[in-house]
Amino acid sequence: MKESIEQQSNSPAKKAAIPPYMKAVSGSLGGIVEASCLQPIDVIKTRLQLDRTGTYKGIIHCGATVSRTEGVRALWKGLTPFATHLTLKYALRMGSNAVLQTAFKDSETGKLSNRGRILAGFGAGVLEALAIVTPFEVVKIRLQQQKGLSPELLKYKGPIHCARMIVREEGLLGLWAGAAPTVMRNGTNQAAMFTAKNAFDVLLWKKHEGDGKVLQPWQSMISGFLAGTAGPVCTGPFDVVKTRLMAQSREGGNLKYKGMIHAIRTIYAEEGLLALWKGLLPRLMRIPPGQAIMWTVADQITGLYERRYIHNAPL
């Protein structure tokens, strides 16, 4: 009995972790703020990716053209599904990543290796892609690609109507068009993002999860911004292919793109290699700032919880 007590006292103590539900709450609140701020950039990105004729000369020209011909509110087209999508996506991403990280931690020391962090991030990205991202982005992209001022002339009248029309015309699986490149994009993105965010927190601010330290908002913004830069460059082709597959419908004939590999080959053959990175600049304008906003909100919520309920420090 005495030996067992001594063994327990000599074994490394496991740090108490922030529960997954708090990570989910922090992510969802961060998603609401992010969506409201950055929706116009997402609309411009989608229009540029779908532009095969050179209508738009660049980001500024695209935004100005949309505002002039369709009204300023057109830059917030698809905001309802986008905000809902981000809120649910970040809740699932942050919560599932916390659960997976717990599963990959060393059972004796409670420490998480870099390999475990990468796998947890990839798993969270795959889960969010299949459960939330794909159907919401299909609806969002169909709404964003519509051009015109008169609602009567638009095929889709709103998010619910759009979803119903897709299911009626293309079947339920129509809401999961482009699932394969979305899974690859999100899995890779989240593996890189969670790993990079932790690395930047440690490198720049000496912040370790569970140490009770709450980062200042500007510190979270810098770490989040830097962590959000690598993904778009690496996953550009997946994002372009995802957008093309989601935007096409069966109305009026056969589908141009038969799947992810066929789409990559077709775009490369018809438009050149650089076409696979169309919309990269607006993605870089949206994702890193979006991650900066989301992590600023999320870090404050989880940091305050950590101090109050884990370390019992005054707020």
Automatic annotation (TrEMBL):
It comes from the Eukaryota. PROSITE patterns: SOLCAR (PS50920). Solcar repeats lie at residues 18-103, 115-203, 215-304. It holds the Pfam family Mito_carr. It is found in: Mitochondrion membrane. Signal peptide: none annotated. Gene3D superfamilies: Mitochondrial carrier domain (1.50.40.10). It is a multi-pass membrane protein. Keywords: Membrane, Mitochondrion, Repeat, Transmembrane, Transmembrane helix, Transport. Belongs to the mitochondrial carrier (TC 2.A.29) family. This is Mitochondrial succinate-fumarate transporter 1-like. The lineage of its organism: Eukaryota, Viridiplantae, Streptophyta, Embryophyta, Tracheophyta.
